[in-house]
Specification:
216 residues, alpha+beta, 4-stranded antiparallel beta sheet, two-stranded antiparallel sheet
């Protein structure tokens, strides 16, 4: 503390603080004496430091360091933090009852729903007025989205989570299709190249025969 103003500020911040009964400041010695039977020295130190924005040192009473045995016991008592397992989002299949009066209406509903985040597949049955939606989403939000985008009201007929075995099988089939699609594309490209070479060869042979006829 370098002036009476600083000392006044310290006294003000400790006035009425928990357990504090009396506060005396000494600007020359840069000391603050706090009296109170129930005052916590560490809490008083923290408050003065926070309010004055200055470094404060506790001269007395000096807090006792924790005994090594007690600190070990405290560490042993702390339970190990369980690792939080991130659950994979559940794929669900929802069947909605939606009035559709024509095929164009059914296609429009299908196109709109496919734009919703999390939707993987949509099937619209015009005859039964049922729309089957598969993906990772919240069913109430799907109904709300459909009404907002198309103006049609939908009733939830059925909702069930997809079995993990079926999901794994579907993923395997997708990977298999990708693996088989690449070689098939290469085979088509090879056939096209061979076909072009044959046509080119035939054209060259025909030109040679025509030159021979002209010479003869």
């Amino acid at each position: 503390m370098h002036c009476e103003g600083c000392a006044r500020k310290v006294r003000k911040c400790l006035k009425g603080f928990e357990g504090v009964e009396n506060v005396q400041t000494d600007c020359k010695a840069h000391k603050v004496v706090v009296k109170g039977e129930k005052a916590d020295p560490l809490k008083v130190l923290e408050r003065v430091q926070r309010k004055s924005h200055r470094q404060v040192e506790l001269l007395s009473p000096i807090p006792k360091p924790p005994a090594p045995e007690e600190s070990k016991k405290a560490e042993e008592k702390e339970p190990p933090k369980a690792e939080e397992k991130k659950e994979e989002p559940q794929v669900i299949t929802v069947v909605l009852k939606v009035y559709m009066h024509c095929d164009a209406c059914a296609q429009e509903i299908k196109r709109r729903i496919l734009r919703m985040n999390g939707v993987e597949n949509v099937e619209a049955d015009l005859k039964s007025s049922l729309v089957t939606v598969r993906g990772v989403f919240e069913t109430p939000k799907l109904v709300e989205y459909l009404h907002k985008r198309t103006g049609k009201n939908a009733v939830i007929v059925k909702q069930e989570p997809e079995k993990k075995e079926e999901e794994k099988g579907r993923r395997k089939r997708k990977r298999k299709r990708r693996r088989t699609a690449a070689p098939a594309a290469r085979r088509r490209e090879k056939r096209l190249r061979l076909s072009r070479l044959r046509r080119k060869k035939t054209a060259v042979e025909e030109e040679a025969e025509r030159q021979l006829r002209l010479r003869g």
